[in-house]
Amino acid sequence: MNPQLQAAFDLGELIRPSWSSHSLVDLVRAQAVLAGVSNLEQTQPTRDLVQEIGQSDHHVFVLVDGMGINLVERLPERSLIRTHLRREINSLFPSTTAAALTTVATGEWPNRHAVTGWWTHLPEFGLTATILPFIDRFTHRALTDEGLTAENVFPCDALHPRMKHQPLCILPGKLPNTLYSLYSRGHTAALGYWAIDAAIDELIARIQKARAPTYTYLYIPDIDTLSHLRGWDHEDVAALLTWVDGQLGRLAETVGKRARIVISSDHGHTVVRLPERLPIYGGDPILDMLEAPPSGNPPTPMFHVKKGRRAEFVRLFGDRFARHFILLSSEDAEEMEITGPGKMTDLARGRFGHFIGIAKGALTLKYYERGRIPAGDDIGGHSGLTPAEMLIPLVIV
Predict the structure, then answer these.
(1) Which pTM was predicted?
(2) Residue-level pLDDT at 372
(3) Is the pLDDT confidence value at 373 over 80?
């Protein structure tokens, strides 16, 4: 047990992921159950959400990437999302898109699906992947060129093929045929869209024409993209979310009597100003202790330490970064169950590494290759355990 992290949980400065609280994992599993997936593990929070969402011939799940509860509170009081907000739920750890979307695909916690962040180190293959594009982080070569496949990188199966309701994913136009997208939906049907209002039109038409039960997943990344560039608290982000809310209102008004519509997110955002972007540059002595540069995401860097160098690494990290980051060992991460209940799988344990740095606030710690500088980074960040990152909405229409 890490007493520093436990104290942050006790004070409410950080949010502890827990199987006993309503979470994104429970929401995914509840919707899968309602869409006809059998033999799926259900905790009490999952059963609660099954009852709260309720049966319907047509289930719609809209995931608005990057829409934390702090951003929802900036919407007009009469907006669809605020009017139909049922509760806050927790994201998972790491609270980042790569891990969360893999949970949406599989219904599993990160301690089982083993996707640890945007940069997921794969020690079993001796490389670090930029996992969603499925490329090598440093060479940018497709992992398929290295002989890797979805089957030997992603250990958990997708839920969609197990649904009795006919599944369909509606995704941004370039995504449907990517390797990750094909994996995450189990090669079931998908449509691409180039504008959000067009995606809503497709969804409405599908439900109006349906002659059998359906499950439709709509992924909207625009809020996250703009929050990274300008910060979640920028007026342009609020304006964009208000417009998205209007489109979702049109969906609800048109098919709300035929379909149950659930709206949520994968994580929220913090705003990381330049002085809070801590660097590790190429040639830094700390890199000599590591098997690979820090992976994961900048608010939660993950460290794979060379054999015999752990004590030295802990001392150096503490000297330089203890004011800003809690250094959590893999043993403590497993004991505190922050990546999911129970033991990590061997694969997940290897990918999370020996230590995880957990930001105490809106901070990042990032490896930069020679010639790069922190000033060029996005202003928005996420993957940590702050309330801004961890609290997401559950909206049911």
Answers:
(1) 0.95
(2) 67
(3) no
